[in-house]
Amino acid sequence: QVHLVESGGGLVQPGGSLRLSCKASGNIFSIKSMGWYRQIPGKQRDMVALISVSTTGDSTNYANSVRGRFTISRDRHEKAVYLQMTGLKSEDTAVYYCNIKVLNSDWIGVDAWGQGTQVTVSA
Fold it and tell me: Is residue 88 packed enough to be buried (19+ CB in 10 Å), middle (13-18) or exposed (0-12)?
């Protein structure tokens, strides 16, 4: 079983910054990807930022709406992923979910989600 714990959401004014954190624990043999998604009521959950892990190194991908404002990073030792959000806009308001795709010790693929953290951008 893989468990994710998120933190860092909250209320921020337009133009402000927030940093989300997500730490993974459990039966993790290797990490394939770590990412952040967001969802507003009545809408589908959309990818915000993603780190894909391979033997040749990490690669990142961002939604067009956040590219240049958000930065995703990870701590390999802590099995943690972070999302630094700057220049926040009201349209960034959503519940943000951490996601991790791993192989466990039985080489079975596991897709795990965090509990979600609310980010509200408002004056």
Answer: buried
Per-residue pLDDT tens digits for 25-43: 999 999 999 999 999 999 9
Residue type, 97: Y
- Confidence check: pLDDT of 95 > 90: yes
Spell out the residues 6+ positions from residue 92 whose beta carbon is closer than 8 angstroms to its own.
Answer: 38, 66, 85, 119, 121
**In angstroms, rounded to a whole number, what is the distance separating the alpha carbons of residues 16 and 83?**
14
**CA distances (Å), 53 to each of 25, 73, 90, 105, 122, in order?**
17, 12, 31, 17, 35
Write out pLDDT tens, residues 73-92: 999 888 999 999 999 999 99
The sheet carrying 80-85 orders its strands as 2-7, 18-26, 80-85, 70-75
Strands 57-62 and 80-85: unpaired
- Report the candidate in 101, 96, 100 with the shortest Cα–Cα distance to residue 85: 96
